[in-house]
Amino acid sequence: MKQMKPVFAASILIIFVSCLIPSLLVLPFSSNKTNSLQIHSPHRTVKRTGAEIEVSVYRSMSNKTETLPLEDYVAGVVASEMPANFNIEALKAQALAARTFIVNHLYFGGRSDLPGGANVTDTPNDQVFHNKAELKKIWGKDYQENFNKISQAVLSTKGLIITYNGEPISASFFSTSNGYTENSEDYWGNKVPYLRSVKSTWDDSSPKFYKQVKISAAEVEAKLGVHIPANGSIGTIISRTAGNRVGTVTIGGKSFTGRQVREALNLASSDFSWIRKDNDIIFTTKGYGHGVGMSQYGANGMAQEGKKFTDIVKYYYKGVQVTDYLSMLEKQNGKKL
């Protein structure tokens, strides 16, 4: 394709995007010579400088919006969400999940409730993110070594995302399984074909595999809105999920899902058991996180056994493909972009 003048090229590109892919928010740009380009969508304006897509992150501590290139954002997420001492292939798998998450947000419209035109927050509500200055404070003398390793993982997977039926997936991930991941509908209620329960036998090496927490019976009663009898009985686990977490449970004569109890009591996992000791209830949990999608400690275990990042993501996300989002768009539009 011959080089067009910047203004004319930008105009044609905007018309092209508007006509052929109105739902699309991001489009890799083939020229590095354009100074600035804005693509408008029904949801927001996605900015691009040169060849770089920009991500706007609402910083929860400063209440300001920070805008940065997509790959820098991915590096900040990987550095914040996964230990830097993990195997490089696990870090690559995390980079794929993080990049897929933000591309999915941009592709489908994401959140429109954030101030300053932000696409995402920097909290677990989206993905935890720290910028370079913050990582220097967190890592101290290990900053350069850690960030070099993270950057290697991000650069070696640059532009790659995880797709299902040609679209970016909802790439959920969590810290530590209880030995299995969870079917999406057993935790979130919606059945997603690529978020299926699988064995994850590597997770028992995680320091978060088991956890105990003591909560007073009075606090449990208040948070669950129940009355627990003084005779020592608390409740009964009625069913378990495909991932061997608590499906339904009765406590104080009232029925709950495992997720409801976990979130109300701030437990590490919805795979829990309990014993009563005097006026306290001691909960023992197995695993850490919601359990849906990729287990981070499982990914590291697979990597240590020699599995590549593509093997890892295809194990935890069923029936998916690893592709770059430019190829995804070309396939959708039936022509070279």
What does this structure look like?
There is one protein chain. The protein folds into two domains: 7-171 and 293-333, no CATH class; 205-286, no CATH class. Helices cover 34% and strands 23% of the residues. The protein has helices at residues 6-20, 70-81, 88-108, 132-139, 143-156, 184-187, 217-224, 258-265, 296-304, 309-316, 325-333, and strands spanning 37-40, 45-49, 52-59, 64-69, 120-121, 160-164, 167-168, 173-174, 210-216, 235-240, 246-251, 254-257, 272-277, 280-286, 294-295, 321-324. Strands 1, 2, 3, 4 and 5 form a five-stranded mixed beta sheet that branches. A hairpin with a 4-residue loop joins strand 1 (37-40) and strand 2 (45-49). Helix 2 packs across helix 3 (88-108) and helix 4 packs across helix 5 (143-156). It starts with 5 loop residues before the first helix and ends with a helix. Pfam families: SpoIID (PF08486). This is Stage II sporulation protein D.
